[in-house]
Amino acid sequence: MMDSVKIMLVDDHKMIREGIKTYLAEDPKYDIVGEAKNGIDCLKQLENLEVDLILTDLHMPEMDGIELAREVKEKHPDIKLIALTMMGESQHIKQMLAEGALGYLLKNCGETEVKLAIQNVMMGGTYYSPEVTNIIMNNIRKVKPKSGSNVAMEMPLTDREKEVLKLILKEYTNQEIADELFISVRTVDAHKRNLLDKTGSKNVAGLVIYAIDRQLFDDL
Question: Residue 6: phi, psi to the nearest 5?
Answer without folding.
Answer: -85, 120
